[in-house]
Amino acid sequence: MLGFVFTVFLTFLGLLAITFFIGRVIPIDPVLSVVGDRATPAVYEAAKVQMGLDQPLPIQFFNYVVGVFSGDLGKSVSTGRAVVDDLSRFFPATLEMATIGIIIGVALGVPLGVIAASRQGSVVDQIIRVVGLLGYSMPAFWLGLVGLAVFYARLRWVGGPGRLDIFYDGLVSPVTGLILVDSLLAGEVDIFWNAVSHLILPASVLGFFSLAYIARMTRSFMLDQLSQEFVTTARVKGVPERVVIWRHAFNPIRVPLITVIGLSYAGLLEGSVMIETVFSWPGIGNYLTTALLNADMNAVLGSTLVIGAVFIFINKVSDVLYRVLDPRAR
């Protein structure tokens, strides 16, 4: 247990070092982003001293680490609030959308990959492979715009951009930051279903790209298992094909699938910038984009740090699941 905690600590410390030094080498002056390019030299120097940027890099890094572990990521120039407060407000929106997206991707991608592998070379296999190819090659922003044009503007099946209709905005007090959970906790069923109508389309778009990756990898893993001798032996013994596929061939690929699903989930959390922009989704991707355009380095570094921490957390959860599903990994 101590080794696990120590490993997480060292990994997070390395992430802090990377984000800190990237923030220092990129050609953006954080002082100018605060005081503006018309500030006098005296004002510029005073702001530089106040921000601690006049000190040597090792001391700056030490202060940065101390600030992070004390929950201080600085103040955002874009919003005028503490970066920690902004992240606690915007990250749950991304988490909610990505979670629904990965559920869709796993629920459809794994069965499709298994079916494609069990019917290799058939029409069904070719269709599933084409769907996967589309998921890899289709631009996310284009698919999002088409989805809005068809399912929102034309058919009116789903809600439009944003998390809620304007009428419901602000009626539910944030508890978890997840609008679906908070609306149910408040007993606001109408707001819950309105949030679902807004969430389903962007989550489905994310889920489609996740589905393509998961289905492709599942098919690859299954083809390798179906060519093994123990599968051939089970078939010769007359074991039903359904049992051969889902018990004998599928069980061994659960462990590598955890890695695939974990990486896909983390990718949805950090790679949803285009989707959040198209759907005006108030998540961390939209927040990071605004911060980059405004040279808001505190917000950029804070967002990058959160995304990196998510990757670390998901990888460690995957390690735990390895040990649960495969006793040999213990």
From TrEMBL:
Q: Does the keyword Membrane apply?
A: yes
* PROSITE patterns (UniProt xref): ABC_TM1
Query: What are the protein's UniProt keywords?
Result: Cell membrane, Membrane, Transmembrane, Transmembrane helix, Transport
Q: What is its main location?
A: membrane
Coiled-coil regions listed in the entry: none
InterPro entries referenced in this protein's UniProt entry, alphabetically: BPD_transp_1_N, MetI-like, MetI-like_sf
- SUPFAM superfamilies noted in UniProt: MetI-like
Q: Mind telling me which residue stretches traverse the membrane in this protein?
A: 97-118, 130-153, 191-215, 255-275, 295-314
- Which positions fall inside the ABC transmembrane type-1 domain? 91-322
Q: What is this protein called?
A: ABC transporter permease
Give the organism, scientific name.
Answer: Devosia ginsengisoli
